[in-house]
Each structure stands twice: as C-alpha cells, then as structure tokens.
Amino acid sequence: MAAMIRHFRSSNYITRITRSLSTATETVKSQNYPRNPIPTSIEPKGKTVQWVFLGCPGVGKGTYASRLSTLRGVPHIATGDLVRDELKSSGSLSKQLAAIVNQGKLVSDEIILNLLSKRLETGEAKGEAGFILDGFPRTVRQAEILTEVTDIDLVVNLKLPERVLVEKCLGRRICSECGKNFNVASIDIAGENGAPRISMAPLNPPSQCISKLITRADDTEDIVKERLKIYWDKSQPVEDFYRSQGKLLEFDLPGGIPESWPKLLEVLNLDGQ
Fold this sequence. Notes:
It is globular and about 45 Å long.
C-alpha cells in the first residue's frame, strides 16, 4: 500500500502517465491478448484481498464490491465516490469535475490518480490492509500502473445487457437527507440469443425518504448512453489485459441482488449472508 501511494503521489510520474495516454490506445490495438480460460477456482489469500471490480456504469459494481468488502474485512474504494466527495467540497477542483461529469465524460487520469492516492494514504494511516477497487483501472495504462506497484489477486467483471443498464441508471435515486441510494425501475426484459429473462424488482425507499428523492444530474438517457459508449470504446481492453493474466472472472448477473448475490458467492467460493 505504501509503495502504491508513493508511486501515485509522484508529480513527475503522474505527468508521464498523462503524456503516455495518447499512445496507450494504439498500443492496445496492436496487441492480441490470448483469451485464456477464466479462473475456475478462487482461493482468497487469508483475510487480505486485492481485488478489482470491472463493469459498465450502472451494472452494480458498487453494490457487490461493498458487500464483499464487508464480508472480507477490507475497504471498498470506489473512484466514483471519490469524485462525488470532491464535487461536494469547496475546492477549486470541484467546478472542473462538475463540468466533466455533467457531460458524461471520463475524469482525467491525473485527477483520478491524485484522488486515489489521497484515499490510500488516509487508509494506510488507519491501518487498512488490502482493498477492493471499484472504477479503477479504467484503461490498460492504468492497469499497467497497478501491476507495477501491487499484485491484483482477482478481477471480477460484472455484465448486463445494455437495455438493462440504461433502465437501471434512469431509475437511480438518492435521498437528499440520508444519502442512501434507491432504484425505482421495475425491470423485466426477455433474453436474446438464448439468454435467460432478466427481472429486477425496484429498490424502493422507505416512506420518510420518498419526498426527498433526487436524481443524479448525469442520469439522463443521453448521458447514460454516452457513458456506456465511452466505456466500451476505452475500457473494454482492460478485460483482455487481465484475461491474458488468467485473473479475469466474467460474471453475467442473472437478475437483481436476491438472485445474483448467492451465485456470486458460490463462484468466489465464499460463505456469506
């Protein structure tokens, strides 16, 4: 953890990362990663884990990563939360971030690396060991940086059809008072090409939160579809990067939390509630 923090905090290193991003995509296109079989047996290393959660916006990375972090006793570090926390601050960075997020664009690597390094530094001071990363890495270059400074044990790639992802994002709501997340979408979509039907019941708020629900500014259909396009164009090569290392576990969500959670635990060889 300390080595990662020092690596990320180096301003010269961050500058080199930013400059190299323009060539990273071309490098990825020129490489044909072997499509190795996904891990079939997951053996967590004691209590400490160093896992990454991948998946499109709205797939539920935060939900499942958070549950697993509690189960395994390690922090759940979501770069999306780091960005939203910074947006709530009065710092000079908040206005710049607001403009980027509201247009559905990706936050620059330099900003993400700085926010993540601050979070890791705070965690190390508290004695945290291990982590579950959610929302990082987004690019092959970021994945290469992680490989240089730490050993990722497992990469879980959560998957849902695009129609389901759009409906989920449009149904997201946040209570402006307690800050809890809910989803008012009732999803029932027939499977295609032999895939099973996907049904997800809404996650409705309690009565005291109903009148206080708000929608995230970036949860509009146009912005959601733009985020998905950006993800598929720029982030999917990360899957090939980890697949080539035999660390990628692809998990097609069969439905909502009641259906998906026990099956995910089964795949990960974990016991939990």
